[in-house]
Design a protein that fits this description.
seven-stranded parallel β-sheet; 378 residues; Rossmann fold; 15 strands; alpha/beta; six-stranded parallel β-sheet
Length: 378
Amino acid sequence: MKIGFFTDVYLPTPTGTSVMVESLRQNLEKLGSEVFIVAPEFPHYQDKENNILRVPSYFLPNRPESPIAKPIASKFYKTVENYELDIIHSFTVYTIGTFGLNCSKKFHKPIVFTFDTLYTEHTKNFRPLYKPFAKMWYQKQLISMANSCQLTLVPTPSTRSLAEEFGVITPIEILPSGVSVNDYTSITPAALRAKFSIPEGQSVLLYVGRLDEESNVRFLLRAFHEIYLRRENTHLLIIGRGAQEDLFQKIASKQPFGDNVTFAGFMPKGELNKIYGACDIFVFPSTTATQAIAIIEAMAAGIPVVAINRLAPSNIIRDDEDGYLTPLNEKVFADKILYLLENDKIRNNFGRVARAHAAKFSGDHSAKRLNDIYKKLL
């Protein structure tokens, strides 16, 4: 098959959708398909693969790692037509998603939509006056996109329920987000401490994700305060960028645990993959994540995860087997982390089970299922 992926996030941006798109591309091509990608331009980044169409883009000040596609010029339709696609797959409701939908109609090709982002949560940084209207717009865009396609894909059962609740009436299939589970050979804990100037003897908690209100980082900092009061030799390593990065840094710097928190900023995917396994526990405070690929990556690296029992984490983590799921309560969240830090045998066993469980979310497994879905749709 010739497949067209239309996505507003792709390499080198290290988001969950970007990781998933690249994993699916690689594994579908191993199965014999040809995958073409339409994505925004990223300055100074050179694609290593062919069949990638980059369209003009711009950056917002609060999203320096995620370019936004400008309106698509008519000349790009001819390029897509020359691809002679069999099927179109959109991963976004934004400009490039609309372009994919238009190509589907123009060239009479079936189109699939992946709903893996809770778009309505993008309004958390908006002014209160605009939030209701923005949420309404996002939900309308989501429903319009999904119901204009022949099939909607979601990463977890909880996301399927959410899509149905929003008003998606097209057929829905669950396709777990695939990652390359063998890409997580780690640096040593000593090398990790040297890289980030973490004192010897401190246990390391890792958070990877966007630094904005929807990621619930304030909750994480409050929970870490609870941990610090009972175990000062603990360090929180935060990797990611976002609109609230400076604010969270200021909040942390004014706390007694300020020296025990490191904001590492953006990190390229290949480098990030080597960090996971050198840490002790992966922490995930988000209550809005629909796919949570970072959780799967941490599990693939062999470390347990403590997360809030909402949406994607509840479908990935097996509570008290490879990690812990907690209510939205800082003390309970901190208690579970402390319990693992103080019980090496249990923590290490959770890590081994997590690594084995991560194989369920392998990219080749997801690609084979997606390949079958495409064939059935065609």
